[in-house]
Write a structure and sequence with these properties.
The chain is an alpha/beta fold and 417 residues long. The protein is built from 16 helices and 8 strands.
Length: 417
């Protein structure tokens, strides 16, 4: 980044003001930077100035400024990549000796908080909120809000969420995790349970992104197939493995629409199979099956899986049959690079995201309509996606993700110098 002096300070006649310094620094930046990098560097330049102003307001004084108004000292920087449309901008985010600072332009969790407020207010002004929501509205001092105010707030959020959910999907996406959670919504005067389907993927650059959201009435195959088709229409391609729980119809939809392998969530499978072992046998059965997961190769894993099933068959025939039927689906991840397997065998990579969705949605209880679900859940997903975008490390390393890419430029081995 740029090593220019930041902040405001007292100056005498003949000294440059902070504004003059900034303008000269910007002029020098433009003169020495190629056109291809100019936009990205200017974004970084502006971001650095914004952070300096924000930190100055928090600390009560500018950089290196001696002031009686200072309330806290700075404490160095932490590096963080910020993915923008102009490319990756390297940020140096100031740290404080006491408390924390996060750049306002990255908006941590702000969109979801606004969406939650909008959904609560919408239910309240329509007179269909629960008693708990009514109490919350009054406690937050929002009881005087009008329908027009709520409508404007909803429109503002919906526009951003829609742009995010409808954006083009570019490049290859070897791995996709799909999960569904259930929420309650009012439809035609009744309260019904709907499935909220979420897809998260890792691209050929090793980066993780939220790919899509769908509110459906069930988990039947047509619902899954249409959800996947929408993703392909937006540009989804290069999918090798889809990881999910054993939702009805999803395996067939993955095969028909994406022509990809399906991985049944190992964690959910173990919960289901151990339920057939009885309380006294669950720990033993779990450890026994776990020996198959500890194998190094797919062939060894399958052989051990069948060996375990055969040994359990005399006393637990139903459990052994379940293992016979699930073998290929539970062990599908073993055919992929060893370095990736810890992240491919289950839906755990999106469990934290689902937990955040549940936590926010529990506040609402019953949604006033489907649009309100999309508004709140979409805002949560947008924020999670933004947080992943500024994380320094890749979710899967660039070197190992190349092994599953169809792009010859990505999958080409490094040439020895």
């Amino acid at each position: 980044m740029f090593g220019y002096g930041l902040g405001s300070y007292t100056h005498s006649r003949g000294e440059r003001t902070p504004m003059t310094n900034d303008m000269m620094a910007l002029k020098g930046l433009v003169e020495k930077t190629s056109d291809s990098d100019l936009l990205r560097d200017m974004i970084g330049f502006a971001a650095e100035r914004l952070m300096a102003m924000e930190v100055g307001a928090v600390t009560g004084a500018g950089y290196h400024e001696k002031s009686g108004d200072r309330v806290v000292q700075r404490n160095g920087y932490r590096d963080r990549d910020w993915e923008t449309r102009a490319g990756t901008v390297e940020l140096r985010i100031p740290k404080l000796r006491k408390g924390t600072y996060f750049p306002g332009f990255l908006e941590p969790r702000r969109m979801a908080e606004k969406a939650l407020t909008a959904v609560i207010q919408e239910a309240y002004v329509q007179g269909i909120s629960t008693r708990a929501v009514d109490d919350l509205v009054k406690a937050m001092g929002m009881s005087g809000i009008s329908k027009s105010q709520v409508s404007r707030l909803c429109e503002e959020i919906d526009e951003r969420v829609k742009a995010f959910l409808d954006r083009p999907i570019e490049g290859e996406w070897p791995y996709i995790w799909i999960d569904a959670t259930y929420l309650k919504v009012r439809r035609g005067g009744r309260i019904v349970s709907v499935a909220v389907i979420i897809a998260v993927g890792v691209n050929s650059d090793g980066r993780r992104e939220v790919l899509g959201l769908e509110v459906g009435t069930s988990e039947a195959e047509p619902i899954w197939a249409e959800f996947l088709r929408k993703l392909t229409r937006r540009g989804l391609r290069g999918v090798k493995l889809v990881i999910s729980d054993a939702h009805v119809g999803i395996k067939g939809a993955v095969s028909k629409v994406l022509n990809a392998t399906w991985q049944r969530c190992r964690v959910h499978f173990m919960r289901n199979v151990c339920a057939h072992a009885g309380k006294s046998g669950r720990r033993v059965v779990s450890a026994f099956i776990g020996t198959a997961f500890a194998q190094e190769t797919p062939e060894a894993a399958s052989a051990q899986w069948r060996n375990v099933a055969d040994q359990l068959r005399p006393k637990m025939p139903k459990l052994a049959t379940i293992m016979d039927e699930a073998e290929h689906d539970v062990l599908a991840y073993m055919t992929f690079p060893k370095e990736h397997r810890i992240k491919l065998h289950s839906t755990n990579p999106i469990e934290r995201l689902n937990g955040e969705i549940k936590r926010r949605c529990d506040v609402v209880g019953i949604f006033p309509n489907d649009d309100a679900i999309t508004r709140l859940v979409g805002a949560i997903l947008l924020e999670a996606n933004d947080e992943w975008a500024v994380q320094r490390g890749r979710y899967i390393t660039l070197e190992t993700i190349a092994q599953v890419s169809d792009d010859p430029l990505i999958s080409m081995p490094a040439v020895a110098s």
